[in-house]
Amino acid sequence: MRFFPLVHYLPTAVGLMKNFIARRAIYPFYASFKLTTRCHFGCPFCNVRHNQIPDLPTREIKLIMDNLSRSSVLMTSFEGGEPLLREDIGELLEYASRCKFYLLFTTSVRNLLDFPLDNYARHIDFFHVSIDEGHNNLDMYDLLPALVKLPTQVSVQVVVTKNTVAALESKVQCCYDCGANIVIIPAAHMDNTDDFFPDIDALERQILELRKKYPKTIHTPHGYFAAYRKGKCSSASIIISPDGFLYYPCHILGEKGPDLRTTDLTQWLASSKAAEQRKKMKACTRNCGWYQYYSIDAYTSLRSACESLAPMIAKAKKIHHRTGTEFTEKNM
Questions:
Q1: Domain assignment of residue 196, yes or no
Q2: Which residues pair with 189 in a beta bridge?
Q3: In contact, 195 and 189? CB cutoff 8 Å
Q4: Smallest Cα–Cα separation from 25: which of 230, 222, 281, 303?
Q5: How many domains is the chain partitioned into structurally?
Q6: Which residues pair with residue 183 across a beta bridge?
Q7: Number of CB atoms found within 10 A of residue 113's CB
Q8: Is 1 domain-assigned?
Q9: Parent domain of 154
Q10: Of the candidates 239, 220, 184, which has an alpha carbon nearest to the alpha carbon of residue 298?
Q11: Taking the chain (332 residues) in consecutive chunks of 10 residues, what is each chunk's mean pLDDT?
């Protein structure tokens, strides 16, 4: 994980301050960018396959990254579909590494080791591999010993359904033994899918037990569960559709705001239209449990943030030890 010049953090700090003063999340600091709807899988809890959208050209993806780089967003996540299906992914990763945000990259492709990961990893701050029953790719846990040698933070991303809570321990233990992190995400109920959302109390108990047994491995924040019980999702994170439009107020409701190829994100968020959409999010009673919207506010709590980031800090020390560089706070 890189350390930016302090001036790069200023838009995020200003955004957080304005959010605090307004007592609402106007300016986001996390962006999920869906680069493509193409995917090898047909997960039963995902509706991407029902909403196919043509990929944007490379230059238009870069325009959106420039837009995010000017905003309060501190971390951008490349997702899909499967982002590795884009032929220009190497170019996009290299471009993102010069932007003013950290980059998280999520993949689930089976032939992962066939890609030039050593090269890609140099541009990625957090590398997530989705492995779960929904993807039917549990055999990919065998790749972890090779993946953790990459010069980046490696985490397994597990989507948990009502039927797979009990199977969590073997996955967490595998990550613990290999030196990877794991983020555990409940399967939110999306339109055009069956309801796989797990028993939230059983899932929380399981995670609490596993945290004790496998320390500094899980980075799912406790704040997620508190937010779900309060029905409190947050617009402190955003999702961008593969066509370049901003889902707003949220991805689950399916409504879209501006085209981020042509509209400045920060200016639009201050508009009356954006304020109306945030009111709609606040009034929503669906309580879908979408992980991104319910966990993001936990990172503005010092205690919760430290708890969630501890596994990543521990792994960062190991990476720098392995590569022969000295670990300092600046490396974070």
A1: yes
A2: none
A3: yes
A4: 281
A5: 1
A6: 157
A7: 11
A8: no
A9: 6-331
A10: 220
A11: 86 94 95 91 62 92 98 96 96 97 95 96 97 92 97 96 95 97 94 89 97 95 95 96 96 93 98 96 94 91 51 54 42 37
